[in-house]
Design goal:
By secondary structure, the protein is α/β, with parallel strands linked by helices. Among the domains are: 46-109, Trypsin Inhibitor V, Chain A (2-Layer Sandwich); 115-182, 2-Layer Sandwich (Trypsin Inhibitor V, Chain A), CATH 3.30.10.20. Helices cover 32% and strands 24% of the residues. It is built from five helices and twelve strands. The protein has helices at 3-6, 13-41, 57-66, 127-136, 192-207; strands at residues 46-48, 70-77, 87-91, 97-99, 103-109, 115-117, 140-141, 145-147, 155-160, 163-164, 170-172, 176-182. Strands 7, 8, 9, 10 and 12 form a five-stranded mixed sheet that branches. Strands 2-5-3 form a three-stranded mixed sheet, covered by helices on one side. Strand 9 and strand 10 form a beta hairpin. The longest helix is centred in the first third of the chain and has 29 residues, at 13-41. Residues 187-195 have low confidence and may be disordered.
Length: 213
């Protein structure tokens, strides 16, 4: 085969038409693909998640809808002093870029005060120790109620709203509890003077010879 014949196909019009057609097809496919990706990912239509912290649910809902975003409340937490249904946490975080129609997940404040188990302090704690344990558990301490008991400042009970609590009871976090403690000065069952008096009262009976008859 001569060299001229080998390269003769390059001068063929149909050859170049086929090459041009293939190039046009590839370019068109690339354009269509990128346009589809833009449409699917909404490229250029992202919005920033607004700062919703501290807002009420209604306020947050209005702001999110204005930005074409959805929302869902997924959790709640009690914070003392904070009104209920206030936004505490936002996922994705405020300022994040997301697609329109994205769901934003919220954690809000709860009105329900959690219940806390009262520490076991009755009949096993001094007044000072009981106060320390109750404060550490998040309770407030009311004025101590003293009752007649030989053991001074020994905890013999605990009350909430005037009702004496049984062991293992749970009450609202931050509740005010009243400790019932002994005032001391009572007569002990082991009081020495009382024991000696009893012995003296019994002793004459043993001096009577009738016991041995």
């Amino acid at each position: 085969m001569k060299l001229k014949q080998f390269f003769s196909f390059k001068t063929n019009r149909f050859f170049w038409l086929n090459i041009a057609g293939m190039i046009i097809f590839v370019i068109a496919a690339i354009i269509v693909t990128f346009r589809w990706l833009d449409s699917y990912t909404m490229h250029g239509h992202s919005v920033a998640v607004p700062d919703l912290h501290g807002m009420s649910i209604d306020e947050a809902s209005t702001l999110l809808r204005e930005r074409k975003l959805k929302f869902a409340v997924t959790d709640s937490s009690y914070i003392k002093g904070m009104p209920a249904r206030r936004v505490l946490q936002v996922i994705p975080a405020s300022g994040s870029k997301v697609k329109e129609g994205r769901t934003v997940y919220l954690t809000v404040s709860s009105a329900r005060v959690p219940l806390i188990k009262v520490p076991d302090i009755v009949d096993n704690s001094s007044l000072r120790e009981a106060e320390a344990r109750l404060k550490a558990a998040g309770f407030n301490i009311g004025e101590t109620e003293f009752v007649a008991n030989e053991a001074k400042d020994w905890v013999v009970g605990i009350k909430f709203n005037g009702t004496e609590l049984s062991r293992g009871t749970s009450v609202p976090e931050g509740a005010t509890l009243v400790i019932v403690a002994g005032m001391g000065g009572g007569t002990s069952i082991f009081d020495n003077d009382a024991i000696e008096a009893d012995i003296e009262s019994v002793a004459p009976a043993f001096d009577d010879d009738s016991w041995f008859r």
